[in-house]
Amino acid sequence: MGPADHSSWNAVRVASWAITACGVAYLMGPQFISQFRPPENRFLDFSQEWLSAKNYWSGVPVYADQTEALLRHTGVSPDKLEEILPRNAHPPAAVVVTLPSAALGYGAAHLVWNLLTLPLFLLSVGLIVRDLKIPVQLWSLLPAIVLLLLCGPLYYHLLLGQFNFPVLFLMTVAWVADRRERPGWAGAALGAAACLKLYPLFVFVYFLFAGRRLALITGAMAFLIGNGIALMILGVHEFETYIRDVLPSLSHYQSSSRNVSLNGLWVRLFDPHPGEGIVPLMPSPVLGQALTLTSRFLIVAIVARASWLARSVESRDRAFAAAIVGMILVAPFSWTHYFTLLPLPLGLVWTRIPSGWQRWLFGAILVIIWIPENLFVSLMEPLLAVGSSDRTDEPFPPLFSLICFPIPTYALLVLFVLVLRTPSHIAQVGGPADNNSAPERDPA
């Protein structure tokens, strides 16, 4: 298992992968294509942007109540929907980017968004493969097709119509620019990503402690310019509403069983929201908050140390990739579709971790990341259930919050460790040569 596995393709191997790819395409292809457009009268995450765009062109506040907006613009009764949020949870700049979607019906707008952004995901993977010098041949497309069609987070992302593809592309551009000693462009790309979603702001920890001062300056400028444009288009009131009303209203989602961040782990164990139907291990909001802050501090400290000690291209790769995994871990809430942001950490570990137990552990992580969300809960529920076999009205016992729900979180923690264990020089593991080294600190 490793990059050397793709160095030779004999007839048997090509035939095996060709048959596998055809079988997976036959079985999963139609389902994969169906994710691009939501079912009729089902309004998923992208409906937030679409309804905000509709509101904007109608002269209604973009962060107005979404159930009222849905009834106003579609005639669909909000009480029949479960997916719709009370307000758009995304930043104002994300609303501005998607204002043209109002010209289409929701299903068509969702479809166009996926068609426009999926190539950004593929391009990001291509840039990572190129810069990590992962050996690729024509036949490598066969396993790539299989992995693409079996990727649970990718399905989920397309179904929801989320923002992670453009965010991933901008963060990948930031990484590529940084390793080519163009910190100004790196910071600008990361600042633009943070306009669409706030969580990429965490990656600036890398620039700060790696001494990339120009990246910090251009990143701040890009973030301010992006939000300044949104401010001119939407107005001050929308920013005030987002900060004052929208962000606080999202707090109860932190204890969701689908939240894969460290915050979700501790909140579920010690202070779950009553609406989530989760029994705490021990009711203690103070302890839950303390453990959240402690774990966040440790992740920040580890990323900061890795960034501070980075002296070569390879060690900077490691610190940047660790910042991406850390970003998902320290967020107030992270979902499994955020795993589409992990191509760089996964590629880095795959190419640089030596053979042995670490590579087998990495294989297990890949399985956990790739499978559909909540699969472990479904598999383990009969073993951990207490009382009636019908769990529709029963709360989940603490074992679910300790064993089942956080399995993706545990996988992220292991991936975080493996990224940090990658060598600072590729030659140590016999990988492709890359003798470029960075100066100790960016003079800018």
UniProtKB/TrEMBL annotation:
Q: Which residues cross the membrane?
A: 12-33, 111-129, 136-156, 185-209, 215-234, 290-308, 320-348, 360-379, 399-420
How is this protein situated with respect to the membrane?
Multi-pass membrane protein
Does the entry feature the keyword Transmembrane helix, yes or no?
yes
Q: Name one Pfam family in it.
A: GT87
Keywords recorded for this protein, A-Z = Cell membrane, Membrane, Transferase, Transmembrane, Transmembrane helix
- Molecular-function GO terms, alphabetical: hexosyltransferase activity
Q: What is its main location?
A: membrane
Where does it sit, as one GO cellular component term?
plasma membrane
Location of this chain's protein in the cell: Cell membrane
Q: Which family does it belong to?
A: Belongs to the glycosyltransferase 87 family.
Q: What is this protein called?
A: DUF2029 domain-containing protein
